User: Fold ABC transporter ATP-binding protein from Nonomuraea maheshkhaliensis.
Amino acid sequence: MRERLDLLGLFRHAGPAVTIALTAMVLIDAVVPAGIAIAVQELVAADGRSALGPVLLMSGVVLAGQLALAFRFPVGRLAADRIDGAHRTRIAALVMGVPTVDVAERQDVQDRVKTTTAEPRDWVDRTSGDGAVSQLELVGHAVALVSSSVVLSWWSWWLVPATVIPAVCFRTMHGRQWVRHFRIWVEGVLYHRRWKYWGEVATTPAAGRELRVFGAGEWLLGHYTRDMRTHVDPVWEDDRRVLRGLWLALLLPLAGCTVAFTWVALGTAAGQGTIALEVAVVTAAWSVFSVAIRTDDVISLEGARPVRRAAAELERINPAPIPPRAHAGTAAAPPPLVRFENVCFSYPGRQVLNGVDLEIRPGESLALVGLNGAGKSTLTKLLAGLYRPDSGRILADGTDIADIPGWQSRLSVVFQDFLKYPLSLRDNIALGADDPGLLTGVVRDAGLAPVVSRLPGGYDTPLSRSRTAGVDLSGGQWQQVALARALYATRRGARILVLDEPTAHLDVRTEHDLFQRLPDITEEISVVLISHRLSTVRQADRIVLLDGGRITESGTHEELMAGGGQYATMYALQARRFSQGYEDRLDEGDLA
Ligand SMILES: Nc1ncnc2c1ncn2[C@@H]1O[C@H](COP(=O)(O)OP(=O)(O)OP(=O)(O)O)[C@@H](O)[C@H]1O
Assistant:
């Protein structure tokens, strides 16, 4: 019951006009049979008197019914779409509202997000909006039953249970058959996906080449048929069962109608009621029957249930309000002194940081180096407050960053896997906080100015081939866009700039130019730079080496080289390989 009320409550997202219009149409549709019964009664009873009134009544009822029928689907679609829009926005806000990313990364959270926001692909898939509209229609069915019952009771109140009870029993039985059918279908959905997959493989040109060359067509069709039969055999078997059961179940409302028709006919013959009343009652009994056999809402309600449940479970993740951005023009505070104190952190089943002690001093450029998988990116995500340490603390000017409101707006990051928005260059950099005065400067600093001059629409060129007049950029140019985005945030108040492999896709010259400019463009900002190219990090004020979950070396390039530790070994090895023309990344095997 609660789930059903919740569904009706979703109409608050459809807007009052649409909700009122749809409710009116559903109610008109529901009372049309009773209205026709009354109009027919009036017509028959007119008998010689002017039939103008009854004819007008009949015309009005029929017309209203037809109009309601014509508008019900588009208005219902509009309501469902608005509800779905609000529902999906709410889910996105819920997930976005969690300041750390560990919750969003959880498999159970991902599964629920997928369930609750998926577009319907198969006949069993339904959205929240579909469920809400079906629930309203169910209310309409109840109104239809009540209004027809009123007409039936004019003959005898016994006619109401005699017709309505078998009709409700039929609806319940047939509804259960549909729910069972639905569940059988859903149980085999894994095989459904598989045979869909085999079907796609069989018909795509790329796969077609391989299948022909390797003569694997028969093998693939075998899989296709086997998986399809595994899924559809139980469904077809249940189809047959439903059809067999439907005949038996239909006997119930038919028996109710037959009793009503016979009773009324015999009564009229015996002079118990007028012909006019008989016609009205027979029409109402037919209406009860027709309401009983409309069970299409059952699938919508059942299909929307997992969507609603997943949404309710996501509601429990308890989001915080999305933190405000730092604003341009506000006197930006100087960069803080950041201290990692004995920080430990694990992903599920894997400890990555094991007692990190580290200082990021105000305004310094700090290079963080280490082998692949050492935990460098993880450390910067902890700094950005995207994860919380399992133990230990990260302090900014003595306060735990978890207790600093809007901490994330004080940072700017170029992530290794930065996003490429299919939007204009302007939006890709400003992310909606447009300030033309800042844009030109960061584009120049990121080395993007020549690219912008070649774009057909300048800053407003969509960076996606799928958009009208859109263009795509090269990997290196996209990286410059990500850098410009990060620099833009620093101009708006961020005071720590994290660069995680910011030049991995840049050519040597562009990279060299960028690092030459970096000290000037990041003045009064702390910079944390992660790079595998040790030739580029050597210019940093300080270099720290992360190994075995701890900071094991710290100093300037010269100090670390003189120390002869792991950094010195890595540097020497990389310099040698570079001079021989090899790629300059190192992994554990190189140091053995
Ligand atoms: N979201 C995650 N869930 C589970 N494990 C993760 C996740 N992100 C990273 N890891 C694991 O944590 C370890 C450290 O990863 P991280 O990306 O921090 O290393 P890194 O030093 O930045 O590596 P690279 O130099 O290759 O970029 C790796 O073993 C990685 O597989």
Strands lie at 338-347, 350-360, 365-369, 391-396, 399-400, 411-414, 496-500, 526-530, 542-547, 550-555.
